[in-house]
Amino acid sequence: MEAKLSNKVCIVTGATSGMGRAIATKFSGEGAKLILSGRNKGEGTQLASNLGNAVFLEGDVCEPSYNERLVQAAISNFGALDIVALNAGILGLGNVIDLTLEDWHKTMDTNMGAIFYLSKYAIPQLQKSKGNILINASIAAFKSFPNHPAYCASKAGAIALMKQMAVEYGPDVRVNAMCPGPVDTPLLWDSAKAFDNPANAVEIAARSTLMNRLGTPDDIAKLALFLVSEDASWITGTAMTIDGGILNS
């Protein structure tokens, strides 16, 4: 059976940990050629070495020029660009009164602005390849959590941007989003620090899912693979929830 992403060229941001790392690993296993993005040079270089047909480019997705270099790296190393998987994200914890302006702007720029920057430079290449964009959003776009105003707002904005780009660039480019619930990653445990008892908050989140467990990065990677593959060729403009049923609990 042919690999689902055989010879597809993919940029994966947030690739050095959590869901982004799992997605990069899954895509590589299905034949993709990867440009890996992240700020942790050691982790990124090691991941690229382990995966094989991958190049790591260290940088900050909040810098527009870095996003342009990611696209250039795909073209210079592999000759095309087929898929963009956007996973970089931060929390910006603190309520509206206490959250600093710096943290507000940094969270909005990382979680939403960077989607615009990379899409801006990637879409002309994706139009040529009939490719697609996948945004890793969150159920925080639909469900609010204490001390997460920047995170919730940025994830809702990311989904609105996804829908607009799907309208603007279809049928040539598909654009979709995933909305994970509580997934066992470092970001989840950092998010739990917004509560008085972080470990208890994570346990409650797991029990609140209809599946009675946290999600795993591989759960998310499986959905990501489906959405960027030809199996999802008639899906665009969609925000797909993957949350163990927590929004229905």
UniProtKB/TrEMBL annotation:
Xref: InterPro entries: NAD(P)-bd_dom_sf, Sc_DH/Rdtase_CS, SDR_fam
Superkingdom of origin organism: Bacteria
Pfam families, per database record: adh_short_C2
UniProt family annotation: Belongs to the short-chain dehydrogenases/reductases (SDR) family.
The protein, known as: SDR family oxidoreductase
Species this chain originates from: Maribacter algicola
Organism lineage: Bacteria, Pseudomonadati, Bacteroidota, Flavobacteriia, Flavobacteriales
